[in-house]
């Protein structure tokens, strides 16, 4: 498993927490930061999945 997949999943979790806290306390900036972190995490995870696919294709 590529490290980008792991980091992406962590970024998504961190973003979800920030977004939820932002909603609860009414902090729009924190909520927006959380949403941005989630999107960045999804992108990073996608890069990791692509790297894994290429690595698996090369092995075959």
Automatic annotation (TrEMBL):
Family: Belongs to the UPF0337 (CsbD) family.
UniProt region (Disordered), positions on chain: 40-60
Entry protein name: CsbD family protein
Domain CsbD-like: 4-56
Record lineage: Bacteria, Pseudomonadati, Pseudomonadota, Alphaproteobacteria, Hyphomicrobiales
